[in-house]
Amino acid sequence: MTHWKTILQNSACTPAALAQHFTIDCNALEQVIATYPMRINSYYLNLIHSIGDPLWKQAVPDLAELCDSVCMHDPLGEEKLSPVPNLVHKYPDRVLFLVASECAMYCRFCTRKRKVGTKRMLITEETIQAGIQYIRENKEIREVLISGGDPLLLSDKRLDSILSRLRAIKTIEVIRIGSRVPCTLPMRINKELVTMLQKHHPLYINTHFNHPRELTVEAEKACTLLANAGIPLGCQTVLLKGVNDNYKTLQTLFTGLLRLRVKPYYLFQTDLTRGTNHFRTHTSSGIAIMRRLIGSISGMAVPTYALDAPGGKGKIPLTPQYINERGDSLRFNNYLGKPCTYPENGDPA
Ligand SMILES: *Cc1c(COP(=O)(O)O)cnc(C)c1O
Ligand code: SF4
Asked: What is the reported pTM?
């Protein structure tokens, strides 16, 4: 198998490189790339069947990225919630700690596209040390979410060093890594990495698949290695117009993930990030899809549909309405649309 570093080196990062595989408008691409970088590694590029397909849309820059002025650079207010650079402290008991600025692919819908993969995201040993010190000094923090960029693009040694320093803090119970690598560069998940990771339990990994065509043999191998190392796997999917915003696609994706021992965790409504507006769906279509999923597939395969409230106000679940009427009895329609009731007083009559 080709080494992951070779696959990453063989990324299409320029219009000319992509033009070797597809007929494209190099001029338009050049304009977008001047603001938001492109990186499509050779593994993910091979998954794209045709121009405009669901994998193309996630990976290839589009002029629409330069056209939305209503959205915000930093919709989640991450900068103002950062007590030290690259660390976001929004909820009292857990922090988001950004330790890497690069990704195996630059997703066009990325919430942090203002800085990921650019010089605007500066991560150094100093910022890492400052983050670790902040975590050590704030005793109410129980969980650290390591993200970026993609933490699994760091070398084993570098990541081991960060994890070891976090593990040395007695108040930290759980470490959670957010990484799209099992989807976008699955060969990065090898025996050496997994052997290192499993020293740092309890460790969770939340990965990010958006389409069933990403569930390849290679992705399955990566997830198996991680799961066999006792690392519980979750998935944070983003609901994307033209990519996965329909029942059939998400049903196939979520049940397929469960088969790979990945628990669908969140289905995210697209954030109000500048440059991503063309991916936004109305929340009513997400809620309608959830309504059809709940009950018709394994409950284990159903994620929480949620939005991340603008300005750093936290995650808000968008749950289908089930209660039609309250009173002595609750009235609902079940997953088949059949009416049913639940008597609060315990009397089924
Ligand atoms: C999403 C997020 C978390 C984690 O939230 P969970 O609901 O526990 O997954 C933590 N911190 C920040 C800043 C976040 O954006
Ligand atoms: S892997 Fe995650 S952080 Fe990186 S570009 Fe994609 S969505 Fe953004």
From this structure: 0.97
